[in-house]
Specification:
The chain has 242 residues and is an alpha/beta fold. The protein has helices at 54-65, 82-88, 97-100, 115-121, 151-158, 173-177, 196-208, 222-226; strands spanning 4-8, 11-15, 28-29, 46-50, 69-73, 92-94, 105-108, 129-132, 137-138, 142-143, 163-167, 181-182, 185-193, 212-215, 239-241. Strands 4, 5, 6, 7, 8, 11, 12, 13, 14 and 15 form a 10-stranded mixed beta sheet that branches. Strands 2-1-3 form a 3-stranded mixed beta sheet, with no helix packed on it. A two-stranded antiparallel ribbon has the order 9-10. The chain is globular and about 40 Å long. It holds the Pfam family F420_oxidored.
Length: 242
């Protein structure tokens, strides 16, 4: 019987793939860390964050500390985030959702049930890089019905033309906000997407923050591994050893 082998942190861990015939699955995911020379200068990029809940704040804290220009927004208006923006630093501004959506990279930190409303209320994200940290969980902790698609494939359909990269969804907000540089190495952060250039840029952000980024492939492949609650990589706090 063949099994899925996941190569992480200089170790090999056999795991089963939910819903897959184990005799047909044989895969080894290799850690692909972007070289430092490929990481863009933070001053060359603006990051817009739509949603200022736990994951939005955690991401804002990290990218602000890394020197990126950050626009953070929520549905209640920029004035409600002025104090948070001030606390995060001079490179963070509170803006409208519409303005945050004009950034080169958009971090979509909104509850699953509000995604469609956001898609209808903002300018087109055609050509923009959209980092998708969402999980398909509805109020009452009910799982949304996705059919045969991954959650990020659904997100890509809601925002046509956007270059969607699934990332930051497998770690709880307090670990996203925590220092990813551990004594033994770096906290692992998985990502996937269909646009390689977009993935390279997101990988640059991930690695500049201090995480060990691992490219899982396309949304229909890696997205399935990342997806909460049934993905085999969901909610694992892993460290890549130095």
């Amino acid at each position: 019987m063949s099994r899925l082998f996941l190569c992480i942190a200089k170790g090999i861990f056999p795991v089963n793939v939910n819903g897959e015939d184990p005799d047909r699955v044989q895969l080894c995911i290799v850690n692909q860390i972007v070289n430092q020379s490929e990481i863009l200068n933070p001053t060359d990029m603006k990051i817009g964050i739509i949603g200022a809940g736990a994951i939005g704040k955690a991401f804002a804290q990290q990218v602000a500390q890394a020197g990126y220009q950050v626009m953070i927004s929520n549905s209640r208006g920029p004035e409600t985030l002025a104090e948070l923006a001030h606390q995060l630093g001079d490179n963070v501004s509170s803006t409208s959702v519409e303005q945050a959506a004009t950034a080169e990279v958009v971090f979509l930190a909104v509850p699953w049930q509000k995604l469609r409303d956001v898609a209808l209320s903002i300018p087109s994200l055609q050509g923009r890089i959209v980092i998708d940290p969402t999980n398909p969980i509805l109020p009452g902790f009910k799982l949304a019905n996705l059919g045969v698609k991954t959650s990020s494939e659904v997100v890509a359909e809601l925002f046509p033309g956007a270059r969607v990269v699934k990332a930051f969804n497998t770690l709880p907000p307090h670990l996203v906000a925590a220092d990813p540089n551990q004594a033994a190495g770096h906290r692992v952060l998985f990502y996937s997407g269909n646009d390689q250039t977009a993935k390279d840029i997101v990988a640059g952000i991930v690695n500049r923050l201090g995480f060990a980024g691992i490219d899982l492939g396309r949304l229909d492949e890696g997205g399935k591994l990342q997806q909460f609650p049934n993905g085999v990589l969901a909610v694992h706090n892993l460290i890549k050893l130095s």
